[in-house]
Structure formats: structure tokens, C-alpha cells
From TrEMBL:
Domain ABC transporter: 1-233
Family designation: Belongs to the ABC transporter superfamily.
Protein name: Peptide/nickel transport system ATP-binding protein
Topology of the protein relative to the lipid bilayer: Peripheral membrane protein
Record flagged with keyword Membrane: yes
Gene3D superfamilies membership: P-loop containing nucleotide triphosphate hydrolases
UniProtKB keywords: ATP-binding, Cell inner membrane, Cell membrane, Membrane, Nucleotide-binding, Translocase, Transport
Length: 249
């Protein structure tokens, strides 16, 4: 970007139904990496290497120009910015269901209600008729997750989706993501190793645009190899680290 290399030497793989956390401090290059995968890099930024999704080279290709097999869905940290404030949730959910899955009529109505139930919004009639401003922050983020699931993308990229939420809602959204991505791959972007430990199996630590560690969460917590990882572990433990996925208490 502007002749500067902001992220370099990053090799990142997310397989099958794996849940991988990309962790680092602010400015480490996490969101740029996520944008490269999503195809939403800012103007002036470009990928020097390559991005493959489901075996398809999608380097530099906007989301609309990618084939269905290489579809990637995103969940951001600000649901208010991600949702159209003037359009009812029902109409916004209908867009990907029509465009990507060809649903209409009763089938579309059933799928919208089912998606909302999946993300814990059981009062589907009210939610579908509401505009985003009529919902709480946690409810809006749940709608964003439902939108990500609507296209049945093989990979979901969640970029700091819990940052703007209170601790109770944050825990609910993490539990929801864990359940909702059982059948898809997840790349979870965060600066908080404690949150990552509650959700992901493996973590990739990014520092100043470079991967400095890549290991199972349990190994990172017990034996960090890089000083940046050790600092993240100390911060996580100071915040009452939850039991990592796959670990026994």
C-alpha cells in the first residue's frame, strides 16, 4: 500500500471444518490479511502472493467475481456499519438467499426463520420486520452471523466480531459461532487470546505483519515460543482465561 509492504511472508491455511484464530496486537496486519481473503482490500492495496479458496485462485478478485465454490462470508466488528439502517432485516436476509441459493416464496421464508433460530433469535417475525436500529448490538451481530451463514460459504472470516460487545454478549456470540460453524471453516481474527481459546483449535500469531507462531491453542498457552505470544498469554491469563477448546478441566 503506497509502496509499503504491510504484511509479508504470511502463509496461512484453514482446512475443512477447522477453526483457526489469527491473533495479534493492533496494527499487526490481521485485518489486512482478512481483507485479502475476503477480497475487500482497500484501494491501493494489493496481494503480492496468492489467495486460494477451495483450490481456486481468487487473488485480487472481488467477492462478486468469485465462483460459488470459492465463496467466503464475512462477519465484522461493527454490525451497525455492516447492515443497511433503512432496510428491514427480512429484506437484507433475503438478498443472499435469492442470489446464492435461488430461494423464493415459502422456501425463502422458512430459511430466514431457520437462520434466525440458528443464531438464537427465536422471535423471527419481529426481527425480520425490524430495521437494525430497532435491535440491540448483540442482536445485530447475530443477524450478521445469519447473513454470513445464508450463502453457505465454505469459509467464514470473522474479524473482531466481539470487540464492541459487553462481556456477557461476547460470550454468547462466541458460543454461537462455535455452534454455527460446525460444518464450515472459520478464520477468527482477534487481539484477545482468551476469546480465541474459547472458540478455536489452532492459532496463528501475527506480529508486525509477519507470522511468528502457528500452533494448537493448548500448546500456545502452555509453551509459547515467541515473546509476542508470551505477552498475549499473560494478557489472557490476567483476564480469566477460559478452558480452551478440546482441553479438559
Amino acid at each position: 500500500m503506497s509502496g509499503r509492504r504491510l504484511v509479508h511472508g504470511v502463509r496461512l491455511e484453514v482446512a475443512g471444518t477447522e477453526r483457526v484464530a489469527l491473533i495479534g496486537a493492533s496494527g499487526s496486519g490481521k485485518s489486512l490479511t482478512a481483507a485479502a481473503v475476503l477480497g475487500t482490500l482497500p484501494a491501493g492495496a494489493e496481494v503480492g502472493g496468492s489467495v486460494h479458496v477451495a483450490g481456486v485462485d481468487v487473488t485480487g478478485r472481488a467477492p462478486a467475481r468469485r465462483p460459488p465454490a470459492a465463496r467466503v462470508a464475512g462477519v465484522g466488528q461493527d454490525p451497525a456499519a455492516a447492515l443497511n439502517p433503512l432496510v428491514a432485516v427480512g429484506a437484507q436476509l433475503a438478498l443472499p438467499l435469492r442470489a446464492h441459493r435461488g430461494l423464493r416464496g415459502a422456501a425463502l421464508d422458512r430459511e430466514r426463520a431457520g437462520l434466525l433460530a440458528t443464531v438464537g433469535l427465536t422471535d423471527s417475525r419481529r426481527v425480520l420486520a425490524s430495521t437494525p436500529g430497532e435491535l440491540s448490538g448483540g442482536q445485530r451481530q447475530r443477524v450478521c452471523i445469519a447473513l454470513a451463514l445464508a450463502s453457505r460459504a465454505g469459509l467464514v472470516v470473522a474479524d473482531e466480531p466481539t470487540t464492541a460487545l459487553d462481556l456477557v454478549t461476547q460470550a454468547q456470540v462466541v458460543a454461537l459461532l462455535r455452534e454455527a460453524t460446525r460444518d464450515t471453516a472459520l478464520l477468527f481474527i482477534t487481539h484477545d487470546l482468551a476469546v480465541a481459546a474459547a472458540l478455536c483449535d489452532r492459532a496463528v500469531v501475527l506480529h508486525e505483519g509477519t507470522v511468528v507462531e502457528d500452533a494448537p491453542i493448548t500448546r500456545l498457552l502452555s509453551d509459547p515460543q515467541h515473546e509476542q505470544t508470551a505477552a498475549l498469554v499473560r494478557a489472557a491469563r490476567a483476564g480469566a482465561l477460559p478452558t480452551p477448546v478440546g482441553a479438559t478441566s
